[in-house]
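Researcher: I'm preparing a figure for a lab meeting and need a structural model of a single chain. I don't have an experimental structure, so a prediction will have to do for now. The sequence is pasted below. Please return the structure as tokens so I can convert it later.
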Amino acid sequence: MDIQRIVLFAGLAIVSYMMVLAWNEDYNQPQTQPATEQASTSTQPASTDDMTLPSESASGPDTSSEEIGRASCRERV
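Model: Understood. Here is the structure written out token by token.
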């Protein structure tokens, strides 16, 4: 009876660890910018003349079908 209990707890621990890894892969937040970079930009006045906007290609944003599939799966949940 003790061996069954140990095997079940080991299986539960492995499955729980795998679920945490999958959760981190799906919902991991990117690192934020360091505060020193924000402080250096806040000391200079912002001028709209110096700003450049990112340009998109004529075909639109560059997304693969795999990224679109992952995004649609997350929306259903």
